[in-house]
Specification:
With 496 residues, this protein is α/β, with parallel strands linked by helices. The protein folds into 2 domains: 2-232, 3-Layer(aba) Sandwich (Rossmann fold), CATH 3.40.50.300; 255-352 and 362-495, Rossmann fold, CATH 3.40.50.300. 34% of the residues lie in helices and 24% in strands. The chain has 19 helices and 20 strands. The strands form 4 sheets. A 6-stranded mixed sheet has the order 6-7-8-3-9-10. It has a 6-stranded mixed sheet with strand order 16-17-18-13-19-20, sandwiched between helices. A 4-stranded antiparallel sheet has the order 2-1-4-5. The longest helix is centred in the middle third of the chain and has 16 residues, at 168-183.
Length: 496
Protein backbone atom coordinates (compact mmCIF):
# COMPACT_ATOMS: atom_id res chain seq x y z
CA UNK A 1 0.00 0.00 0.00
CA UNK A 2 2.84 2.37 0.85
CA UNK A 3 4.39 1.72 -2.56
CA UNK A 4 1.09 2.50 -4.29
CA UNK A 5 0.77 5.77 -2.39
CA UNK A 6 4.38 6.65 -3.18
CA UNK A 7 3.76 6.11 -6.93
CA UNK A 8 0.45 7.95 -6.95
CA UNK A 9 0.49 11.40 -8.55
CA UNK A 10 -3.25 12.14 -8.75
CA UNK A 11 -6.28 10.57 -7.12
CA UNK A 12 -9.72 12.07 -7.70
CA UNK A 13 -12.55 10.18 -6.01
CA UNK A 14 -16.30 10.61 -5.59
CA UNK A 15 -16.39 13.90 -7.52
CA UNK A 16 -19.90 15.33 -7.88
CA UNK A 17 -21.09 18.58 -9.48
CA UNK A 18 -24.51 20.03 -10.26
CA UNK A 19 -25.52 23.13 -12.18
CA UNK A 20 -28.95 23.97 -10.81
CA UNK A 21 -31.16 20.96 -11.46
CA UNK A 22 -28.67 19.43 -13.91
CA UNK A 23 -26.41 16.76 -12.41
CA UNK A 24 -23.20 16.88 -14.48
CA UNK A 25 -21.18 14.52 -12.26
CA UNK A 26 -22.36 12.17 -9.53
CA UNK A 27 -19.41 9.86 -8.76
CA UNK A 28 -16.36 10.42 -10.96
CA UNK A 29 -12.95 9.02 -10.05
CA UNK A 30 -9.52 8.88 -11.67
CA UNK A 31 -6.10 7.54 -10.65
CA UNK A 32 -2.78 8.48 -12.26
CA UNK A 33 0.52 6.92 -11.18
CA UNK A 34 4.11 7.76 -12.04
CA UNK A 35 5.07 6.71 -15.55
CA UNK A 36 1.44 6.19 -16.59
CA UNK A 37 -0.61 7.62 -19.47
CA UNK A 38 -4.33 7.32 -18.66
CA UNK A 39 -7.01 7.87 -21.29
CA UNK A 40 -10.16 9.60 -20.02
CA UNK A 41 -13.00 8.43 -22.23
CA UNK A 42 -16.74 8.83 -22.55
CA UNK A 43 -19.47 9.63 -25.05
CA UNK A 44 -20.77 13.17 -25.58
CA UNK A 45 -22.36 14.43 -22.37
CA UNK A 46 -20.64 11.87 -20.14
CA UNK A 47 -19.14 14.61 -17.96
CA UNK A 48 -15.52 14.69 -19.18
CA UNK A 49 -15.36 18.47 -19.58
CA UNK A 50 -16.77 19.15 -16.11
CA UNK A 51 -14.45 16.55 -14.55
CA UNK A 52 -11.41 18.10 -16.22
CA UNK A 53 -12.37 21.60 -15.08
CA UNK A 54 -12.69 20.38 -11.49
CA UNK A 55 -9.36 18.54 -11.51
CA UNK A 56 -7.59 21.60 -12.93
CA UNK A 57 -9.22 24.12 -10.60
CA UNK A 58 -11.53 25.89 -13.06
CA UNK A 59 -14.59 24.60 -11.14
CA UNK A 60 -15.14 23.60 -7.51
CA UNK A 61 -16.80 20.22 -6.87
CA UNK A 62 -19.90 19.87 -4.70
CA UNK A 63 -18.33 16.81 -3.07
CA UNK A 64 -15.41 14.42 -3.45
CA UNK A 65 -11.65 14.64 -2.97
CA UNK A 66 -8.61 15.38 -5.10
CA UNK A 67 -5.26 14.08 -3.83
CA UNK A 68 -1.98 15.21 -5.39
CA UNK A 69 1.02 13.01 -4.46
CA UNK A 70 -1.07 11.52 -1.66
CA UNK A 71 -2.03 14.84 -0.03
CA UNK A 72 -5.51 16.30 -0.22
CA UNK A 73 -5.47 19.38 -2.43
CA UNK A 74 -7.96 22.21 -2.56
CA UNK A 75 -7.33 23.38 -6.08
CA UNK A 76 -9.26 26.62 -6.32
CA UNK A 77 -7.88 27.92 -9.61
CA UNK A 78 -5.83 26.76 -12.63
CA UNK A 79 -2.90 28.74 -11.20
CA UNK A 80 -3.07 26.71 -7.97
CA UNK A 81 -3.25 23.52 -10.00
CA UNK A 82 -0.07 24.50 -11.86
CA UNK A 83 1.71 25.25 -8.59
CA UNK A 84 0.66 21.80 -7.39
CA UNK A 85 2.22 20.21 -10.46
CA UNK A 86 -0.93 19.60 -12.54
CA UNK A 87 -0.74 21.47 -15.87
CA UNK A 88 -3.54 21.27 -18.46
CA UNK A 89 -3.61 21.94 -22.19
CA UNK A 90 -7.25 22.56 -23.12
CA UNK A 91 -8.97 22.12 -26.49
CA UNK A 92 -8.96 25.82 -27.26
CA UNK A 93 -5.71 27.85 -27.20
CA UNK A 94 -5.21 29.75 -23.95
CA UNK A 95 -3.00 32.42 -25.51
CA UNK A 96 -4.06 36.07 -25.78
CA UNK A 97 -4.31 36.90 -29.50
CA UNK A 98 -3.63 40.66 -29.14
CA UNK A 99 -0.23 40.03 -27.53
CA UNK A 100 2.98 38.61 -28.96
CA UNK A 101 4.59 35.34 -27.89
CA UNK A 102 6.95 37.02 -25.40
CA UNK A 103 4.14 38.84 -23.60
CA UNK A 104 2.12 35.64 -23.32
CA UNK A 105 5.11 33.87 -21.77
CA UNK A 106 5.56 36.70 -19.24
CA UNK A 107 1.90 36.52 -18.23
CA UNK A 108 2.25 32.84 -17.44
CA UNK A 109 5.73 33.11 -15.84
CA UNK A 110 6.99 30.66 -18.48
CA UNK A 111 10.79 30.39 -18.79
CA UNK A 112 11.77 31.34 -22.33
CA UNK A 113 14.67 28.98 -23.03
CA UNK A 114 12.90 25.73 -22.04
CA UNK A 115 9.81 26.88 -23.94
CA UNK A 116 11.78 27.47 -27.16
CA UNK A 117 13.55 24.13 -26.74
CA UNK A 118 10.20 22.34 -26.53
CA UNK A 119 8.83 24.27 -29.53
CA UNK A 120 11.75 23.00 -31.60
CA UNK A 121 11.45 19.49 -30.17
CA UNK A 122 7.77 19.41 -31.17
CA UNK A 123 8.63 20.36 -34.74
CA UNK A 124 7.73 24.04 -35.07
CA UNK A 125 10.68 25.96 -36.46
CA UNK A 126 11.21 29.65 -37.12
CA UNK A 127 9.14 30.94 -34.21
CA UNK A 128 10.04 34.45 -33.05
CA UNK A 129 9.13 35.90 -29.69
CA UNK A 130 7.75 39.02 -31.38
CA UNK A 131 5.25 37.01 -33.47
CA UNK A 132 1.70 38.15 -32.74
CA UNK A 133 -0.48 35.26 -31.55
CA UNK A 134 -3.33 36.40 -33.82
CA UNK A 135 -1.09 35.88 -36.88
CA UNK A 136 -0.20 32.26 -36.07
CA UNK A 137 -2.15 29.23 -37.38
CA UNK A 138 -4.18 27.08 -34.98
CA UNK A 139 -1.80 24.11 -35.22
CA UNK A 140 1.10 26.32 -34.12
CA UNK A 141 -0.93 27.71 -31.22
CA UNK A 142 -1.66 24.19 -29.99
CA UNK A 143 2.05 23.37 -30.04
CA UNK A 144 2.86 26.62 -28.19
CA UNK A 145 0.34 25.72 -25.48
CA UNK A 146 1.92 22.30 -25.08
CA UNK A 147 5.44 23.77 -25.03
CA UNK A 148 4.39 26.18 -22.26
CA UNK A 149 3.01 23.27 -20.26
CA UNK A 150 6.15 21.16 -20.71
CA UNK A 151 8.38 24.10 -19.74
CA UNK A 152 6.60 24.12 -16.37
CA UNK A 153 7.95 20.58 -15.73
CA UNK A 154 4.57 19.20 -14.57
CA UNK A 155 4.12 16.11 -12.43
CA UNK A 156 0.81 15.47 -14.23
CA UNK A 157 0.14 16.72 -17.75
CA UNK A 158 -3.48 16.86 -18.92
CA UNK A 159 -4.07 16.96 -22.69
CA UNK A 160 -7.62 17.56 -23.97
CA UNK A 161 -7.96 16.66 -27.70
CA UNK A 162 -4.38 17.83 -28.17
CA UNK A 163 -3.99 16.46 -31.70
CA UNK A 164 -7.39 17.41 -33.14
CA UNK A 165 -6.09 20.35 -35.21
CA UNK A 166 -2.60 19.02 -35.98
CA UNK A 167 -1.12 17.60 -39.20
CA UNK A 168 0.27 14.07 -39.13
CA UNK A 169 3.92 15.02 -38.62
CA UNK A 170 3.12 17.17 -35.57
CA UNK A 171 0.84 14.44 -34.17
CA UNK A 172 3.75 11.99 -34.29
CA UNK A 173 5.98 14.49 -32.47
CA UNK A 174 3.38 15.06 -29.76
CA UNK A 175 2.88 11.33 -29.14
CA UNK A 176 6.64 10.77 -28.97
CA UNK A 177 7.18 13.61 -26.50
CA UNK A 178 4.23 12.62 -24.30
CA UNK A 179 5.40 9.01 -24.12
CA UNK A 180 8.86 10.24 -23.15
CA UNK A 181 7.33 12.30 -20.33
CA UNK A 182 5.75 9.16 -18.90
CA UNK A 183 8.95 7.18 -19.31
CA UNK A 184 10.68 9.83 -17.18
CA UNK A 185 8.20 9.18 -14.33
CA UNK A 186 5.55 11.82 -14.96
CA UNK A 187 1.83 11.13 -15.29
CA UNK A 188 -0.37 12.04 -18.23
CA UNK A 189 -4.16 12.29 -18.59
CA UNK A 190 -5.02 11.97 -22.28
CA UNK A 191 -8.42 12.82 -23.77
CA UNK A 192 -8.96 11.89 -27.40
CA UNK A 193 -11.61 10.54 -29.75
CA UNK A 194 -8.94 8.71 -31.74
CA UNK A 195 -8.61 5.08 -30.67
CA UNK A 196 -5.46 4.68 -32.76
CA UNK A 197 -3.67 7.27 -30.62
CA UNK A 198 -5.01 5.81 -27.38
CA UNK A 199 -3.89 2.29 -28.29
CA UNK A 200 -0.43 3.59 -29.26
CA UNK A 201 0.14 5.93 -26.32
CA UNK A 202 -1.94 4.99 -23.29
CA UNK A 203 -1.46 2.35 -20.60
CA UNK A 204 -5.03 2.33 -19.31
CA UNK A 205 -8.42 4.00 -19.76
CA UNK A 206 -10.97 5.35 -17.30
CA UNK A 207 -14.48 5.45 -18.76
CA UNK A 208 -17.18 7.94 -17.74
CA UNK A 209 -20.87 7.45 -18.42
CA UNK A 210 -23.70 9.73 -17.27
CA UNK A 211 -21.42 11.54 -14.82
CA UNK A 212 -20.02 8.39 -13.20
CA UNK A 213 -16.82 6.38 -13.55
CA UNK A 214 -17.91 2.97 -14.79
CA UNK A 215 -14.57 1.22 -15.01
CA UNK A 216 -10.83 1.18 -15.64
CA UNK A 217 -9.35 -0.90 -18.44
CA UNK A 218 -5.84 -1.89 -19.44
CA UNK A 219 -5.13 -0.84 -23.03
CA UNK A 220 -4.45 -4.00 -25.02
CA UNK A 221 -5.44 -5.41 -28.42
CA UNK A 222 -9.20 -5.77 -28.84
CA UNK A 223 -10.12 -3.49 -25.93
CA UNK A 224 -12.05 -1.08 -28.19
CA UNK A 225 -15.24 -3.15 -28.15
CA UNK A 226 -15.30 -3.27 -24.35
CA UNK A 227 -14.76 0.49 -24.12
CA UNK A 228 -17.69 1.11 -26.48
CA UNK A 229 -19.93 -1.16 -24.39
CA UNK A 230 -18.97 0.69 -21.21
CA UNK A 231 -19.60 4.09 -22.77
CA UNK A 232 -23.08 3.09 -23.96
CA UNK A 233 -24.47 1.22 -20.94
CA UNK A 234 -28.21 1.07 -20.31
CA UNK A 235 -30.24 3.82 -21.95
CA UNK A 236 -33.51 5.52 -21.06
CA UNK A 237 -36.43 4.28 -23.13
CA UNK A 238 -37.19 7.07 -25.57
CA UNK A 239 -40.04 5.20 -27.24
CA UNK A 240 -40.21 3.41 -30.55
CA UNK A 241 -40.40 4.70 -34.07
CA UNK A 242 -43.85 4.30 -35.53
CA UNK A 243 -42.94 4.89 -39.17
CA UNK A 244 -41.27 2.54 -41.60
CA UNK A 245 -37.70 2.35 -42.81
CA UNK A 246 -35.59 4.70 -44.86
CA UNK A 247 -37.29 6.62 -47.66
CA UNK A 248 -36.32 6.17 -51.26
CA UNK A 249 -33.92 8.87 -52.44
CA UNK A 250 -35.60 10.31 -55.52
CA UNK A 251 -35.34 13.47 -57.58
CA UNK A 252 -33.09 16.43 -56.94
CA UNK A 253 -31.61 16.73 -53.45
CA UNK A 254 -32.75 19.73 -51.45
CA UNK A 255 -29.13 20.07 -50.27
CA UNK A 256 -26.12 18.66 -52.10
CA UNK A 257 -22.66 19.28 -50.65
CA UNK A 258 -19.45 18.01 -52.20
CA UNK A 259 -16.01 18.18 -50.61
CA UNK A 260 -16.88 20.91 -48.12
CA UNK A 261 -13.86 22.08 -46.14
CA UNK A 262 -13.78 24.64 -43.34
CA UNK A 263 -10.30 25.29 -41.99
CA UNK A 264 -8.98 23.92 -39.78
CA UNK A 265 -11.37 21.17 -38.66
CA UNK A 266 -13.46 20.18 -41.71
CA UNK A 267 -11.55 18.61 -44.59
CA UNK A 268 -14.04 16.65 -46.69
CA UNK A 269 -17.79 16.54 -46.04
CA UNK A 270 -20.16 15.41 -48.79
CA UNK A 271 -23.85 14.70 -48.30
CA UNK A 272 -27.22 14.66 -50.04
CA UNK A 273 -30.45 15.62 -48.25
CA UNK A 274 -33.69 14.89 -50.09
CA UNK A 275 -37.20 16.32 -49.69
CA UNK A 276 -39.17 14.15 -47.29
CA UNK A 277 -36.05 12.79 -45.63
CA UNK A 278 -34.57 13.12 -42.13
CA UNK A 279 -30.80 12.79 -42.47
CA UNK A 280 -28.98 12.31 -39.19
CA UNK A 281 -25.50 13.65 -38.50
CA UNK A 282 -23.46 11.70 -35.95
CA UNK A 283 -20.16 12.97 -34.57
CA UNK A 284 -18.31 13.21 -31.31
CA UNK A 285 -17.47 16.64 -29.93
CA UNK A 286 -15.23 18.80 -32.09
CA UNK A 287 -15.23 16.69 -35.25
CA UNK A 288 -16.44 19.52 -37.49
CA UNK A 289 -20.22 19.20 -37.26
CA UNK A 290 -20.58 22.74 -35.87
CA UNK A 291 -18.73 24.20 -38.85
CA UNK A 292 -20.80 22.21 -41.37
CA UNK A 293 -24.06 23.52 -39.90
CA UNK A 294 -22.63 27.05 -39.80
CA UNK A 295 -21.91 26.84 -43.54
CA UNK A 296 -25.37 25.53 -44.38
CA UNK A 297 -27.04 28.16 -42.18
CA UNK A 298 -25.03 31.03 -43.67
CA UNK A 299 -22.91 31.88 -40.64
CA UNK A 300 -19.60 31.20 -42.39
CA UNK A 301 -18.21 30.44 -45.84
CA UNK A 302 -16.47 27.16 -46.66
CA UNK A 303 -12.75 27.13 -47.42
CA UNK A 304 -13.43 24.93 -50.44
CA UNK A 305 -16.05 22.59 -51.90
CA UNK A 306 -19.43 23.05 -53.58
CA UNK A 307 -22.91 23.50 -52.16
CA UNK A 308 -26.25 23.37 -54.00
CA UNK A 309 -29.87 23.99 -52.98
CA UNK A 310 -32.51 22.39 -55.23
CA UNK A 311 -29.86 21.82 -57.90
CA UNK A 312 -28.58 25.41 -58.04
CA UNK A 313 -25.14 26.45 -56.71
CA UNK A 314 -25.34 28.81 -53.73
CA UNK A 315 -22.93 30.89 -51.68
CA UNK A 316 -24.32 32.35 -48.49
CA UNK A 317 -22.79 35.49 -47.04
CA UNK A 318 -25.31 35.90 -44.23
CA UNK A 319 -27.93 33.77 -42.42
CA UNK A 320 -30.63 35.80 -44.18
CA UNK A 321 -29.38 34.34 -47.48
CA UNK A 322 -29.92 30.82 -46.15
CA UNK A 323 -33.42 31.67 -44.91
CA UNK A 324 -34.28 33.18 -48.29
CA UNK A 325 -33.20 29.89 -49.90
CA UNK A 326 -35.53 27.98 -47.57
CA UNK A 327 -32.93 26.78 -45.03
CA UNK A 328 -33.93 27.45 -41.44
CA UNK A 329 -31.70 26.74 -38.44
CA UNK A 330 -32.47 25.68 -34.87
CA UNK A 331 -29.22 25.96 -32.83
CA UNK A 332 -28.32 23.70 -29.94
CA UNK A 333 -27.97 26.71 -27.61
CA UNK A 334 -31.50 28.03 -27.10
CA UNK A 335 -30.11 31.37 -25.87
CA UNK A 336 -28.84 32.06 -29.40
CA UNK A 337 -32.31 31.72 -30.91
CA UNK A 338 -34.66 33.32 -28.38
CA UNK A 339 -35.60 36.85 -27.41
CA UNK A 340 -35.55 35.83 -23.78
CA UNK A 341 -37.43 38.82 -22.36
CA UNK A 342 -40.16 38.74 -25.02
CA UNK A 343 -43.33 36.66 -25.08
CA UNK A 344 -43.92 33.21 -26.55
CA UNK A 345 -46.06 34.75 -29.30
CA UNK A 346 -43.43 37.34 -30.23
CA UNK A 347 -40.70 34.71 -30.42
CA UNK A 348 -42.68 32.38 -32.64
CA UNK A 349 -43.98 35.22 -34.82
CA UNK A 350 -40.49 36.70 -35.43
CA UNK A 351 -40.12 35.38 -39.03
CA UNK A 352 -43.43 36.97 -40.00
CA UNK A 353 -42.05 40.38 -39.04
CA UNK A 354 -38.84 39.77 -40.95
CA UNK A 355 -40.37 38.73 -44.25
CA UNK A 356 -42.60 41.68 -45.07
CA UNK A 357 -42.11 42.07 -48.82
CA UNK A 358 -43.84 45.40 -49.16
CA UNK A 359 -44.04 47.93 -46.38
CA UNK A 360 -47.73 47.36 -45.79
CA UNK A 361 -49.58 46.17 -42.68
CA UNK A 362 -48.93 42.70 -41.27
CA UNK A 363 -51.66 40.13 -41.70
CA UNK A 364 -52.30 39.95 -37.98
CA UNK A 365 -55.08 37.37 -38.09
CA UNK A 366 -53.07 34.98 -40.25
CA UNK A 367 -50.09 35.39 -37.92
CA UNK A 368 -52.17 34.69 -34.79
CA UNK A 369 -53.65 31.56 -36.34
CA UNK A 370 -50.29 30.16 -37.39
CA UNK A 371 -48.66 30.94 -34.05
CA UNK A 372 -51.61 29.48 -32.15
CA UNK A 373 -51.43 26.31 -34.25
CA UNK A 374 -47.72 25.90 -33.46
CA UNK A 375 -48.34 26.39 -29.71
CA UNK A 376 -51.12 23.79 -29.74
CA UNK A 377 -49.18 21.37 -31.91
CA UNK A 378 -46.14 21.41 -29.66
CA UNK A 379 -48.16 21.71 -26.42
CA UNK A 380 -46.08 24.69 -25.34
CA UNK A 381 -46.72 25.77 -21.75
CA UNK A 382 -47.75 29.44 -22.01
CA UNK A 383 -48.48 30.09 -18.33
CA UNK A 384 -45.31 32.23 -18.25
CA UNK A 385 -45.97 33.59 -21.72
CA UNK A 386 -44.94 37.16 -20.83
CA UNK A 387 -41.24 36.24 -20.91
CA UNK A 388 -39.98 33.14 -22.68
CA UNK A 389 -37.01 32.93 -20.27
CA UNK A 390 -39.45 31.87 -17.56
CA UNK A 391 -40.31 28.68 -19.43
CA UNK A 392 -38.65 25.34 -18.78
CA UNK A 393 -35.76 24.35 -21.02
CA UNK A 394 -37.96 21.90 -22.91
CA UNK A 395 -40.62 24.51 -23.58
CA UNK A 396 -38.01 27.03 -24.71
CA UNK A 397 -36.72 24.50 -27.21
CA UNK A 398 -40.24 23.89 -28.47
CA UNK A 399 -40.58 27.64 -29.04
CA UNK A 400 -37.47 27.64 -31.26
CA UNK A 401 -38.91 24.79 -33.34
CA UNK A 402 -42.42 26.24 -33.28
CA UNK A 403 -41.12 29.45 -34.87
CA UNK A 404 -40.36 27.60 -38.11
CA UNK A 405 -43.38 25.32 -37.82
CA UNK A 406 -45.59 28.43 -37.90
CA UNK A 407 -43.58 30.10 -40.64
CA UNK A 408 -43.45 27.03 -42.87
CA UNK A 409 -40.53 24.67 -43.38
CA UNK A 410 -38.76 23.64 -46.57
CA UNK A 411 -35.42 22.61 -45.09
CA UNK A 412 -34.84 22.45 -41.34
CA UNK A 413 -31.34 22.33 -39.84
CA UNK A 414 -31.68 20.93 -36.32
CA UNK A 415 -28.51 21.03 -34.21
CA UNK A 416 -28.87 18.81 -31.13
CA UNK A 417 -32.47 19.98 -30.51
CA UNK A 418 -33.12 17.61 -27.59
CA UNK A 419 -29.97 18.35 -25.57
CA UNK A 420 -30.76 19.00 -21.94
CA UNK A 421 -34.53 18.47 -22.16
CA UNK A 422 -36.76 15.90 -20.50
CA UNK A 423 -37.78 12.55 -21.98
CA UNK A 424 -41.44 13.58 -22.37
CA UNK A 425 -40.48 16.57 -24.55
CA UNK A 426 -38.11 14.40 -26.57
CA UNK A 427 -40.98 12.03 -27.32
CA UNK A 428 -42.96 15.00 -28.66
CA UNK A 429 -40.13 16.22 -30.91
CA UNK A 430 -39.40 12.92 -32.71
CA UNK A 431 -42.92 12.52 -34.20
CA UNK A 432 -42.94 16.20 -35.14
CA UNK A 433 -39.69 15.82 -37.08
CA UNK A 434 -41.13 12.77 -38.84
CA UNK A 435 -44.36 14.64 -39.60
CA UNK A 436 -42.48 17.53 -41.18
CA UNK A 437 -40.69 15.05 -43.43
CA UNK A 438 -44.01 13.38 -44.30
CA UNK A 439 -45.21 16.79 -45.49
CA UNK A 440 -42.21 17.13 -47.81
CA UNK A 441 -39.69 19.02 -45.67
CA UNK A 442 -36.03 18.03 -45.66
CA UNK A 443 -34.49 17.77 -42.20
CA UNK A 444 -30.80 17.63 -41.27
CA UNK A 445 -30.65 16.42 -37.68
CA UNK A 446 -27.44 16.43 -35.63
CA UNK A 447 -27.81 14.65 -32.33
CA UNK A 448 -25.33 13.87 -29.56
CA UNK A 449 -27.63 11.06 -28.33
CA UNK A 450 -27.09 8.04 -30.55
CA UNK A 451 -30.35 6.32 -29.60
CA UNK A 452 -32.26 9.12 -31.33
CA UNK A 453 -30.99 8.23 -34.80
CA UNK A 454 -33.22 5.19 -35.50
CA UNK A 455 -36.18 6.95 -33.83
CA UNK A 456 -36.16 10.03 -36.05
CA UNK A 457 -33.89 9.51 -39.05
CA UNK A 458 -33.93 7.70 -42.38
CA UNK A 459 -30.15 7.67 -42.79
CA UNK A 460 -27.16 9.01 -40.89
CA UNK A 461 -23.80 10.39 -42.01
CA UNK A 462 -20.96 9.92 -39.55
CA UNK A 463 -18.27 12.62 -39.34
CA UNK A 464 -14.89 11.79 -37.83
CA UNK A 465 -11.81 14.01 -37.90
CA UNK A 466 -13.50 16.50 -40.24
CA UNK A 467 -14.68 14.10 -42.93
CA UNK A 468 -17.60 11.78 -43.63
CA UNK A 469 -16.46 8.23 -42.83
CA UNK A 470 -19.75 6.32 -43.02
CA UNK A 471 -23.34 6.54 -44.27
CA UNK A 472 -25.73 4.24 -42.39
CA UNK A 473 -29.40 3.42 -42.98
CA UNK A 474 -31.58 3.93 -39.89
CA UNK A 475 -32.48 0.23 -39.81
CA UNK A 476 -28.80 -0.57 -39.22
CA UNK A 477 -28.04 2.40 -36.97
CA UNK A 478 -27.82 0.73 -33.57
CA UNK A 479 -25.81 2.57 -30.94
CA UNK A 480 -22.75 0.31 -31.09
CA UNK A 481 -22.50 0.65 -34.88
CA UNK A 482 -22.77 4.43 -34.64
CA UNK A 483 -20.32 4.69 -31.75
CA UNK A 484 -17.69 2.60 -33.52
CA UNK A 485 -18.03 4.72 -36.65
CA UNK A 486 -17.89 7.95 -34.62
CA UNK A 487 -14.61 6.81 -33.09
CA UNK A 488 -13.17 5.97 -36.50
CA UNK A 489 -13.26 2.20 -35.91
CA UNK A 490 -14.96 1.33 -39.21
CA UNK A 491 -13.66 1.44 -42.73
CA UNK A 492 -14.00 4.92 -44.23
CA UNK A 493 -16.85 5.37 -46.68
CA UNK A 494 -17.12 8.66 -48.57
CA UNK A 495 -20.69 9.92 -49.04
CA UNK A 496 -21.91 9.53 -52.57
Amino acid sequence: MDEVQRDSLLDASGIAKSFGAVRALSDASLHVARGQVVALMGANGAGKSTFVKIITGALRPDSGKVLIRGEEARVGSPAQARRSGLVPVYQEPSLIPDLDVADNLRLGDTPVEPFLNWVNELGVGGLRLDHMIADLPLATLRILDLARALAAEPDVLLLDEMTAALPTDLVENVLRVVRAQADEGRGVIYISHRFTEISELCDSATVLRDGRSVGDLKIEPGVEGRVVEMMLGAKIDLGARETGGARAKEGTPRIRARGLAVAPKVTDVSLDLYPGEVLGVVALEGQGQDEVFDVLAGFRRPTSGTFEVDGSPVSFGHPADAISAGLTFVPGDRAEALLRERSVHENIALPFSARVGSWGPLKARHERERVGHAIDKLQIDTRAKGEVQRLSGGNQQKVTIGRWLAHGVETLLLFDPTRGIDVRTKRQIYPLVRELADQGAAVLFYTSELEEVPLACDRAVVIFNGRVVDVIDAAEADEETLMRAAYGLTEDKAAS
